[in-house]
């Protein structure tokens, strides 16, 4: 095991040799609809390998419904098969301010970190709060903003594990406990222990 898989926002997947430092392009996935999406922080946010599948989280910036989606593709099919949609965030990130005007979204704050759950056939996904990323707390976040959800990889059902997050960028397991880190509005970054 001297190599890892890496992806960029646009879905270009490469194999990086940890000994030589050389990267070999495997494939460019066509998950984004236009090149402009890359420049507004939309695209692949996280990848995770679970039982011979590569899972990818994607910040989708369709104007009518910005959201998070999760796809998977078999490792043995990485070079030629299309990714399959596993989960789509119900609803959209809200763009409406409390005063009725519409806020700009910054999907750089969408979170979308994937991590394997200790429960078989489950994966955890962080969902940020891109509505308030610009420092304005006068925004009505969508019902799914600021959550960590557990997705069942067989049934595609989900369960909310934690809520109240701003921009959960990372998660890890340590001694059977889940930790997440998130960015504050102007500093004040946090590391949180997630308890059910």
Summarize the structure.
The chain has 196 residues and is mainly β.
Head-to-tail CA distance between termini: 35 Å
The major β-sheet equals:
4 strands, antiparallel
Total E-strand runs:
14
Q: Radius of gyration in whole Å, from Cα?
A: 17 Å
Q: What order do the helices and strands follow?
A: EEEHEEEEEEEEEEE
The oligomeric status of these chains comes to: single chain
Extract low-pLDDT stretches. Answer: none
Beta percentage is 35-45%
Structural shape:
globular
Q: Please, what is the average pLDDT? A: 82
Proportion in helices: under 10%
Q: If strands are numbered along the chain, what order do they take across the biggest sheet? A: 4-5-6-7
Label the structural class.
Answer: mainly beta
Total count of helical runs of at least 4 residues: 1
Can you characterise this structure?
- With 196 residues, the chain is an all-beta fold.
- 2% of the residues lie in helices and 45% in strands.
- The protein is built from 1 helix and 14 strands, in the order βββαβββββββββββ.
- A 4-stranded antiparallel beta sheet has the order 4-5-6-7, with no helix packed on it. Strands 8-9-10-11 form a 4-stranded antiparallel beta sheet, with no helix packed on it.
- Strand 12 (168-174) and strand 13 (177-182) form a beta hairpin.
- The longest helix is centred in the first third of the chain and has 4 residues, at 36-39.
- The termini are far apart.
- The mean pLDDT is 82.
